[in-house]
Structure formats: structure tokens, C-alpha cells
Amino acid sequence: MSDPIWFAPAPRPTQIPGPPPSDSPPEVELSIDGRATTVPSGSTILDACRGLGIDTPTLCFAETLTPVNVCRICVVEMQGSRTLVPACSRKVEPGMAIQTDSERVRTSRRLVLELLGSSVDLSHADALTPLFERYGADPTRFGSPTAPAAAGERDARKAGHHHAPDGGSAETVAQPVKVDNDLYVRDYSRCVLCYKCVEACGTDAQNTFAIAVAGRGFDARIATEFAIPLPDSACVYCGNCIAVCPTGALSGKIEHDLRGSGDWDPARQTKADTVCPYCGVGCALTLHVQDDRIVKVSSPPDSTVTQGNLCIKGRFGTVFVDQGRP
């Protein structure tokens, strides 16, 4: 008996699967300063405020970093809450009634600014100057301001910046300026312990973990492992900590030297956007140019490639442009 003949089944028509159904997050209704609004579930109070165009100040918050809730400048008043709540991290809930500019909120923000301004040198914290004026903060209530040493700092004081008091006992303020490499300088007399640099060095960006908060209370400070010099640490000199520092505690060596000589002048600086030439990733660069010299390199936080982060070559490698100049 011969073997049966098998016929292959007819091919089925090709079916291209469609996209999976997208479940948009449910909407949450709340009230901010008496104005009703609706935002997606999972949004923060800060997101809702910005959606309404309400200017809620922040210091330790950055769009690209995990909120750590340490500065308390963004606090708002929530109906039914015993304490003020941080807008940068508190998730919205249905029926919330938020006040962003009540007398209690203004008093709290003013006190935070005064305590910061009386304990550390904020003369390079340009973003905070409008807040001191907005809330009428007077750091001298908690101590006498220190006379700035450099000409640039004298100009900053005239412009309304604030300085640390004499005899600061906190370990952070007592540290000398650390210049142990050719790329950037650490001046912790300006540090407000906002943790931004720690987050940028950790899982939020670089995953290097070269720095962390050491000590507790008045002994708390930003430090490398075992307080070793930066060249001996795990630092890869990406400078992403500089990019997020809001007070100038971390700054590029060129900027630090120009500020020390009184020649740093952002009003005379121009910006030019370009692409980093060192590899094929295509990182976006913003060149800050003063007197025909690149004095600083940053990256736009909203760049889909970098989100404000760069490597050592992108942030510091453009110095070759100025080499050989007198």
C-alpha cells in the first residue's frame, strides 16, 4: 500500500495586530486658589499649579530628578491638613482644596529663605534673588551678613544678593573651597543641602555615586567617600552635579576664576546651540560665550537626547577652542 499524500494547508491571510488599547489615566478634580481644575491621576500639586499658570517656587526640585522634599520652599496649604504639604511631590487627590499664596504659606516660604540666607552665601544663587524680593525675606534677622571679598561679590550685594553670617558653625559652611582638579570647584559655603547633586550623581542620571550626604544635623555635608580628594574618588567629571546646583556651590573652574577676578558677567554672554562633536550620540550643547571665549557649556533639560546631562568631553572638552590664545 502506497503512502498517503499530504497536502499543506492553505496559507491564512496575514493579520497585522493593531495597537493595544491605551488606558488613559483617570482625571482628578481639585481646586487651587479657588479655581477648579482637572489633571491626570498621578500628577503632583506642582503639575496642577503649573497647568493653571501659578508660579510656585522650587529649589530642590528639578524635572529630571526624583523629588526629595528637603527645601520646603514649594509648600502649599491643603484644606484638612495639619501641616503645609510639598507641592513638588504630593500627588493630587479628588476634592483637594489648595491655597498657594495664603499668609501661612508666605510666612513659611519667607522664613525658609531667611534661614538659608543667614547661614550660607547665596550671592551666586541668581534664581533666589527674586524670591527674596517677592516674600520680603530679610536674612539679617538671624545674623549679620558677611562682607564679600571679591569685586564680583560686591556687585552681587548691590544687586540684592545675600550672604552668610560670621561664625557659621555648620560643617557644610565651615569647609574651605576645594580646588583639587582643573575642571570644577567645590565651594560648600554656598551649599544648602538640596541633594540635587547627589541625585544627579546617583540613579537619576550618572549612576556613579561619587558623592553623598555625610554626617547628621549641623555636621551634614556633601562629601566623597571617606572625604578623599575628588581625583581619587569615583567621580567621572561629567559635571552633571554642576548643572543642577542652584547656588553656585559647584561651578566650572573657568566660571569660578572669572567670578573671583570680578570678570564674570552673564549680561555680556551669548549662547549658541550646537551638537557635541566627540561621538555619534548627538548630545545637545549650549555654549556660553563671553568676550569671544567659551566660559561654560550646558545642555537643555528638555533635550530628548541628554535631558540636561553630559559626559566629561561634552561639558569640558570644548576648551580646545581657546587653546593657544593669549
Describe this structure in words.
The chain has 326 residues and is α+β, with helices and mostly antiparallel strands. The protein has three domains: 27-101, Ubiquitin-like (UB roll), CATH 3.10.20; 105-158, no CATH class; 171-322, Alpha-Beta Plaits, CATH 3.30.70.20. 21% of the residues lie in helices and 17% in strands. The protein has nine helices and twelve strands. The protein has helices spanning 45-51, 103-119, 129-135, 151-158, 171-174, 196-201, 240-244, 253-261, 312-316, and strands at residues 27-32, 35-40, 75-78, 85-86, 97-99, 184-186, 211-214, 221-224, 250-252, 270-275, 284-290, 293-298. The protein has a five-stranded mixed sheet with strand order 2-1-5-3-4, with helices on both faces. A hairpin with an 8-residue loop joins strand 10 and strand 11 (284-290). The longest helix is centred in the middle third of the chain and has 17 residues, at 103-119. The radius of gyration is 25 Å and the shape is globular.
The topology string of helices and strands comes to EEHEEEHHHHEHEEHEHEEEH
- CA gyration radius, whole angstroms: 25 Å
Low-confidence segments, given as residue ranges, are 145-169
**Helical coverage, percent range:** 10-25%
What distance lies between the first and last C-alpha atoms, to the nearest angstrom? 100 Å
CATH architecture of the largest domain: 2-Layer Sandwich
Main beta sheet, described?
Answer: 5 strands, mixed
Q: Compute the number of structural domains.
A: 3
User: What's the rounded overall pLDDT mean?
Assistant: 85
What is the general shape?
A: globular
Number of helices, counting only DSSP H or I runs of 4 residues or more: 9
CATH class of the largest domain: Alpha Beta
Beta-strand percentage?
A: 15-25%
